[in-house]
Design a protein that fits this description.
Blueprint lengths: L5 E6 L3 H9 L5 E6 L12 E3 L2 E3 L6 E2 L3 H12 L3 E4 L12 E4 L4 H8 L3 E3 L2 E9 L2 E8 L4 E8 L1 E4 L3 H7 L6 H6 L3 E11 L9 E2 L6 E9 L2 E8 L1 H6 L5 H15 L14 E12 L8 E2 L3 E3 L2 H4 L3 H16 L2
Helix pairs in contact: 1-9
Bound molecules: flavin-adenine dinucleotide (FAD).
């Protein structure tokens, strides 16, 4: 096997990074991935709680490029995903939608396996010296600071407001990245040990403040996922979790939601709210990625607002890096 000739640091381990790693010629690159969270997935990740896994992020994904469709076929054959048939709230997507059999993290594990991943490594800044890049990093597990490098190239996949802070001062990407603003999103997940025997996901009628409301039966548990609208989330962005929890519960009770199934509000075991400050880009860059000699940027904000856009952005960047 040939020795890698170039070193690359990737910031983030969401779908953009999955697309990047899928495309990159691994024999040419020594790759290190730095992720501030405890696991992979970014906005597709589940959150571990003492009671189980709570799905605060993306609920389904679509695949319109041949590269992602080939992966979908592979994941489907390996029982990692299943088609989602019933989408009355969001209408016809014009393409099949897919949900995880268990969790989306299985897809990230599949694509990032055998990669050098550093979890709980929050990159604070990047600096260039002698034509190489160094990363200043906070290890949030050990509460310490460290420096990693030198690297030939760094790929940033964090949402644009976070990405800007990682660039060296006066970097040429700042102007473009500053044009992308994000909607926040408040999400509530309620879990119960009671299921009503109906194994198909149920999306019930909603109101304009609710963007997504779905009940899943998973094994012996039922889980409700309620994503509030962009506008509602924006208006409540500075409210506390406790305030938002009460506001959403009040809304659901008014709609008679929990009474629709065997899950009454009395037998909800876990109820958690999560705020995504940077949930979905309001505008997009309309470029597959940003590239300059030392630093690149990839992510959903380049091409759209979906998982598949993030994947494609990373994938196209990876293909470009292979040509250099
Ligand atoms: C509530 C919600 C619901 C959604 N629903 C859907 C859906 O149903 N279908 C769909 O297609 N899309 C959906 N989306 C959008 C989809 O999740 C995103 O488009 C996609 O996951 C973005 O991937 P990404 O790799 O570009 O960014 P991210 O997933 O945000 O990945 C960026 C990664 O960078 C890490 N990071 C950031 N800063 C640093 C740092 N300083 N150091 C180290 N690591 C860092 C983050 O922790 C994260 O893991 C939803 C998004 C949200 C928030």
């Amino acid at each position: 096997m040939t020795q890698p000739t170039k070193s690359i640091a990737v910031i983030g381990s969401g779908m953009a990074t999955c697309g990047l790693i899928h495309a990159l010629n691994k024999e040419s690159y020594d790759i290190q991935i730095f992720e501030k969270a405890r696991g992979t997935g970014g906005r597709m990740a589940h959150h571990k709680s003492p009671e189980g896994n709570l799905e605060f992020g993306a609920q389904f994904f679509t695949a319109r490029t041949p590269e992602l469709q080939a992966l979908v076929a592979h994941w489907y054959q390996n029982n990692l995903i299943t088609p989602l048939h019933n989408l009355p709230l969001i209408g016809n997507l014009g393409t099949p939608a897919w949900v995880p059999q268990d969790r989306f993290s299985a897809l990230h594990r599949n694509l990032l396996k055998s990669q050098h991943l550093w979890f709980q490594h929050k990159v604070i800044s990047t600096s260039v010296a002698a034509e190489k890049l160094n990363l200043q990093i906070e290890n949030t597990l050990e509460n310490s600071m460290l420096e990693k490098g030198p690297f030939d190239h760094v790929v940033i996949t964090a949402p644009t407001p976070q990405a800007i802070h990682l660039l060296p001062p006066e970097h040429p990407f700042v102007t473009a990245l500053s044009t992308v603003d994000y909607w926040p999103c408040w999400v509530m997940v309620a879990e119960s040990n009671v299921t009503d025997g109906n194994q198909t996901p149920l999306i019930v009628e909603s109101d304009p403040d609710i963007a997504w409301l779905q009940r899943y039966n998973r094994g012996h548990k039922s889980q409700w996922v309620i994503q509030m609208s962009h506008q509602w989330s924006f208006e409540h962005v500075e409210k506390t979790q406790a305030f938002v929890e009460e506001a959403i519960k009040f809304k659901l009770q008014g709609m008679g939601i929990f009474q629709h199934s065997a899950i009454g509000s009395s037998n909800i075991d876990t109820l958690r709210c999560h705020r995504w400050l940077y949930a979905k880009p309001k505008t997009i860059l309309d470029k597959p990625y940003l590239y300059e000699k030392y630093i690149s940027f990839a992510g959903d904000a380049c091409l759209g607002r979906r998982v598949e856009d993030a994947f494609t952005s990373g994938y196209l960047l990876g293909k470009h890096l292979n040509t250099l």
